TrEMBL record:
<keyword id="KW-0677">Repeat</keyword>
<dbReference type="InterPro" id="IPR015943">
    <property type="entry name" value="WD40/YVTN_repeat-like_dom_sf"/>
</dbReference>
<dbReference type="InterPro" id="IPR036322">
    <property type="entry name" value="WD40_repeat_dom_sf"/>
</dbReference>
<feature type="repeat" description="WD">
    <location>
        <begin position="108"/>
        <end position="153"/>
    </location>
</feature>
<dbReference type="Pfam" id="PF00400">
    <property type="entry name" value="WD40"/>
</dbReference>
<keyword id="KW-0853">WD repeat</keyword>
<dbReference type="InterPro" id="IPR001680">
    <property type="entry name" value="WD40_rpt"/>
</dbReference>
<protein>
    <submittedName>
        <fullName>Uncharacterized protein</fullName>
    </submittedName>
</protein>
<dbReference type="InterPro" id="IPR020472">
    <property type="entry name" value="WD40_PAC1"/>
</dbReference>
Length: 352
């Protein structure tokens, strides 16, 4: 099923006139954005090996307050559930943890290949914050930062981890073989619950788990996104894919396809999912009504990641080179930005 099988809705063009830029210190392309679940703080992990922590005001203005340094490009970051710690990981195969209040950083070797994604996970039986890391060494490993010498557990996967996300009891891992592996963190975090075929045909670039833990969304290089249900009984009414970042056909009937680099659920309105792509645009969708809510104009460069804050009222997106056009297009004047977009009610919700 596709959004484009539905009749178009009116007033779907949004504005970026009120978007506010955060200071980036001339950093390299930002690869990952994560908001604190407890405060108005944003973490941004970058290819320059730094994870910057920002305090963001309600009007979108903000300032950097802390920084984590790694030994290579960082691909992912996340906040602890209480908002006191940030973890980041990437090419140096290590996990880095920043204590937000003191600025103290600890690091430890974690994998045999670069780490693609890292998340604090909800494992009630652990009795302590646990970090899950997904790597190109084809494993997901769990870490108790009080004793980081050895992983608490290791889950072997059929292929490299391309994307990973979690909410509540659910951890979803997208791998290079086009599969999505599900783990129930509350019942048996060391074993796969099941493995589903990804609804998208080509390489996954992004994955987001719904706040309820009942669904997950993915985006791929083919300019498509999908939503899938955790409960197989709901798949028939929930599962679908749609085209999201594609130019209209030209005079020769050629459609230019852009990668969907990021998908993000709105934490306060689960029916709202954002997609962002190599075409430099982001779009808000209602995945229950199969409707486009707002499509925004190009921001001047590829969007590499995006995220809603805990209230659903602020939307962060990163602009930078994503290599989709090859090395020859990575020019010194290519924009690198971190932006905050206010999200009023009419952008993320449409009455039935």
């Amino acid at each position: 099923m596709s959004f484009f099988n539905k009749k178009p809705v009116i007033n779907t063009t949004g504005s970026i006139d009120k978007d506010v830029a955060l200071p980036t210190d001339g950093c390299d392309t930002i690869s990952s954005l994560r908001w604190s679940p407890a405060s108005d703080h944003l973490a941004a992990a970058s290819w320059d090996g730094k994870a910057r922590i920002y305090q963001v005001a309600k009007d979108g203005n903000g300032q950097g307050i802390a920084m984590l340094n790694a030994e290579g490009p960082l691909f992912s970051c996340d906040w602890s559930k209480d908002g006191t710690m940030v973890t980041a990981a990437g090419a140096d195969k290590k996990i880095h943890v920043l204590q937000a209040a003191s600025g103290q950083t600890t690091s430890f070797a974690a994998h045999d290949a670069p780490i693609r994604d890292v998340r604090f996970v909800d494992i009630p039986s652990a009795g302590a914050p646990i970090i899950a890391s997904g790597s190109w060494d084809k494993t997901v490993r769990y870490w108790d930062i009080r004793n980081s010498g050895q992983p608490v557990a290791t889950v072997q996967l059929p292929e490299r981890v391309y994307a990973m996300d979690t909410s509540g009891p659910l951890l979803v891992i997208s791998t290079a073989d086009g599969q999505c592996s599900l783990i129930n963190l509350h019942n048996n975090p060391a074993a796969l619950l099941r493995t589903d075929k990804n609804k998208l045909k080509h390489q996954t670039r992004s994955l987001s788990v719904a706040p309820s833990g009942k669904y997950w969304a993915t985006g791929s290089i083919e300019g498509r996104a999908s939503v899938q249900a955790v409960d197989p009984a709901e798949s028939a009414k929930v599962d679908f894919t749609w085209r999201c970042h594609r130019d209209p056909a030209d005079a020769k009937k050629v459609v230019k396809v852009w990668a969907c680099n990021a998908v993000a659920y709105n934490p306060k309105r689960e029916s709202c999912v954002a997609t962002a792509g190599s075409d430099g645009t982001f779009v808000f969708w209602d995945v229950e009504q199969h409707t486009k809510l707002k499509a925004f104009p190009t921001v001047g460069g590829a969007i590499t990641d995006c995220a809603f804050d805990r209230t659903g009222s602020m939307f962060a997106y990163a602009v930078g080179y994503d290599w989709s056009m090859g090395y020859q297009h990575n020019t010194p004047n290519y924009p690198t930005k971190l932006m905050i977009h206010p999200t009023p009610e009419d952008e993320i919700y449409r009455a039935k």
